[in-house]
Amino acid sequence: MLETGEDYREAGLSGQWWEKRRFTGCDFTGADLSGLRTRGCTFDDCVFSRADLSRSRHDASAFRSCTFERTVLAESRWTSCSLLGTSFTDSGFVGIALTECDLSLASFAKARLRKLGLSGLRLREANLMEADLSGADLRGSDLTGARLQGAKFEGADLRGARLDANALVQANLRGAEVDVETAIAFAAAHGLVVR
């Protein structure tokens, strides 16, 4: 069943279980979605501004080109989800867990993602400009083409992460943990000749 343009603003939907539901252009602004569980659901161009998604669980669901502005995401769990092209602005990520998710083209500009477990995620062409990823676990993540101007990675674990030359020049990688391959690529990106 496809729901198009439905108005769920300020709705109380806490603790519900949704499976294989489809939403397009729906507005969840200010909705209480705490404890919501989704499996195999699709949300296209939906708005979750000021919504409460704390303690929610999402399995194999897609949130494509959605807007999360000042959204509460604390303690939420996302497994095998697609967040392609979704934007996150001034949202709270404390305790969020993302496993095997595709965040390609997503925007996390200026987001505080400190000490989060982000290993193995697909972040291709994501906007992480001025994001704070200090202490984050990004092992094995794909950051190819990501915009990282001003992003902070102090104490982050980037071993096995895929970063292109632009990312190695744009981001502040001081204090990040990298593997030998990334260290050599970093040196080459900064004009050093490694022999």
TrEMBL record:
PANTHER family named in the record: BTB_POZ DOMAIN-CONTAINING PROTEIN KCTD9
Pfam families: Pentapeptide, Pentapeptide_4
Protein name: Pentapeptide repeat-containing protein
Gene3D superfamilies: E3 ubiquitin-protein ligase SopA
Organism in which the protein naturally occurs: Amycolatopsis iheyensis
